[in-house]
Design a protein that fits this description.
Layout: H1 3-13, E1 26-29, E2 38-44, H2 47-55, E3 60-65, H3 77-88, E4 92-95, H4 98-102, H5 108-119, E5 127-135, E6 138-151, H6 158-162, E7 168-170, E8 177-187, H7 190-198, E9 203-208, H8 211-220, E10 224-226, H9 229-232, H10 235-248, E11 251-254
Parallel strand pairs: 2-3, 2-11, 3-4, 8-9, 9-10
Antiparallel strand pairs: 1-4, 5-6, 6-8, 7-10
Helix pairs in contact: 2-3, 7-8
Length: 259
């Protein structure tokens, strides 16, 4: 399909202009191609991913993390090497961060929540799903409350293993059964932990956590489960890939490579 058409569609579908994000959500590196046939999806943008994309003759890479954040202003060191590999091999790079975390159809948070409901046979009429916490005045994350309580160990076995998640549980509340969870696809913040505690969520699920936040959580008796960043964000590339394949019949390849 035409590159311009694809980029315009992504910008509108992902609603990138609705977010104040320190990430630069859009086409970050252009190429000379007018038509995009082969798209590579990955969580991260790095030199080793670009090398493999070059081998596969990829036209465009769509990723979630890196390459230019708010603080990068020069092409030096690793950023120079990344940009050089893309330009040399005529590969475009499209990057989208918070809009994917928040997206109501293919976002990381909503799909982890939906998967949770499916695995534990939770019906919509028996649950309360709400947006949880704002970033730059934009609601991004989700919470869920459900009638039938679930043993907390099931989150470490059935749920996490099914999704192939790494998991670390800190059951500071010492509850065996839970019926409310707040999902935050990012690193923990002190304010978010306070919010989870103030709203009486049995469990706060996050991707990464600081030592100081674990100390605070223990003081508050706020149980935390860490699913780790990469493992939880492998979902959206596949969902976006199949969405574009169904709509535009482009060739899709997902690279599941962490380090």
């Amino acid at each position: 399909m035409q590159k311009k058409e694809l980029i315009n569609y992504l910008n509108n579908y992902l609603k990138i202009n609705d977010f104040i994000d320190k990430s630069k959500n859009w086409l970050q590196v252009d190429n000379t191609k007018k038509e995009i046939i082969k798209i590579w999806y990955s969580v991260d943008a790095s030199t080793y991913i670009f090398d493999k994309a070059a081998e596969e003759k990829i036209d465009m890479i769509i990723c979630h993390h890196w390459m230019f954040w708010w603080y990068e202003s020069v092409l030096t060191w690793v950023n120079y090497e990344r940009a050089k590999k893309l330009i040399k091999n005529n590969i475009a790079l499209y990057w989208v961060h918070l809009p994917l975390d928040a997206h109501e159809e293919i976002g990381n948070n909503i799909w982890l929540l939906k998967w949770f409901m499916n695995i534990f046979w939770l019906k919509e009429e028996d649950t309360i799903i709400e947006k949880f916490w704002k970033y730059e005045n934009k609601e991004i994350w989700y919470s869920i409350k459900f009638q039938n309580k679930i043993h907390i160990s099931s989150l470490q076995t059935l749920y996490s293993d099914t999704l192939q998640l790494k998991k670390t549980l800190y059951n500071f509340w010492n509850k065996d059964f839970i019926n409310s969870i707040a999902f935050v696809s990012w690193a923990s913040w002190t304010e978010i932990i306070k919010e989870s505690f103030s709203k009486n969520y049995d469990l706060f699920v996050t991707w990464e956590v600081k030592h100081s936040d674990l100390v605070l959580s223990k003081e508050l008796w706020q149980s935390i489960m860490i699913w780790w960043h990469y493992e939880t964000e492998k979902i959206w590339p596949k969902l976006l890939a199949y969405h574009l394949k169904d709509k535009f019949w482009v060739e899709i390849i997902y690279l599941d490579e962490k380090y």
